[in-house]
Amino acid sequence: MEKAMRNFFLFLSKNKYLTRSAKKYGLRFGAARFVAGETIEQAAAIIKELNGKGLKVTIDYLGEFVDNQKEARRMVDNCIEAIKIIGREKLDSQLSLKLTSMGMDISDDYVMSTMREIMDAANKNKVFVTIDMEDYVRCEKTLQIFKQLRREYDNIGTVIQAYLFRTSKDMEELDAYAPNLRLVKGAYKESSEVAFPNKVDVDDNYKKIIQTHLLHGHYTAVATHDDAIIEFTKQFVKEHNIPNDQFEFQMLYGIRSERQLELAQEGYTMRVYVPYGTDWYGYFMRRLAERPANVSFILKGIFKK
Ligand SMILES: Cc1cc2nc3c(=O)[nH]c(=O)nc-3n(C[C@H](O)[C@H](O)[C@H](O)COP(=O)(O)OP(=O)(O)OC[C@H]3O[C@@H](n4cnc5c(N)ncnc54)[C@H](O)[C@@H]3O)c2cc1C
Q: What is the position in ligand 1's atom list of the atom closest to the CA of 221?
């Protein structure tokens, strides 16, 4: 049943018609629990609040299915505006983005030019940028673009998904770049030809890549809400004397907020991924796919009104 719900919401997340419709109607159906508003001003207020509680942030201007330069331009401009505001207001925030929003599906040259524009602004404002990882068909190209940009910039990282079979090999190849990586389980619907279908195998692989990346001395962001993985990481760093400034925990805005605070109070770096913008639909559907409890929360919200 849980698997069927997950597939249903992941299917809905890819619906272009619903994506477009949702943009017109503003944050609905409880999406505000997971999305920090539609404007950078609203998001900046949330970042300040989180920073005030000892939490660091990575901000994400939401956008999906960008297939024309006009839309990609709008995305790039919004990212640059966010970078400038982070710099100007001295917010403790990084930036996360998706290459499809920056024009990856338009052309290679185009996405490289938009990314260099963003990276130049980020460099100037001392903002770190993480390239989110999207679906499997875009994984290879995302890594190639990351490697090219990493040769040119220090302030860039990307994401590795534990559910993919290719992940260990990707990490070996990335090692030479001393990459700052966010490690995640993986959020998209992938075929069993490319990804572990069973959670237990994903979790095992997740632990494996956390160990490898930490032992290689690279900065590691463990992005999960899973206590078992968090406890595993805490134990592992203790046993191997890995300093607290070589890793951090990350969670999504609106999910396990209490746990985020606890980890910060225990002295760990805790970063909250804060999405904002009008294009909230796909992101919201993926959150519903992850956890049926989120769905009942949303339904309660709808029927209360
Ligand atoms: C900061 C961040 C960035 C991410 N970036 C990417 C990306 O670039 N690409 C990508 O594919 N995916 C990304 N993800 C999503 C990730 O791949 C997973 O889909 C998502 O984090 C859910 O997996 P999980 O590790 O939290 O554990 P799950 O296996 O989903 O959950 C494990 C356990 O965590 C606890 N838990 C989970 N949710 C809740 C909740 N709402 N309340 C209470 N307990 C809960 C429960 O005990 C649950 O059994 C990102 C996630 C985070 C946190």
A: 1
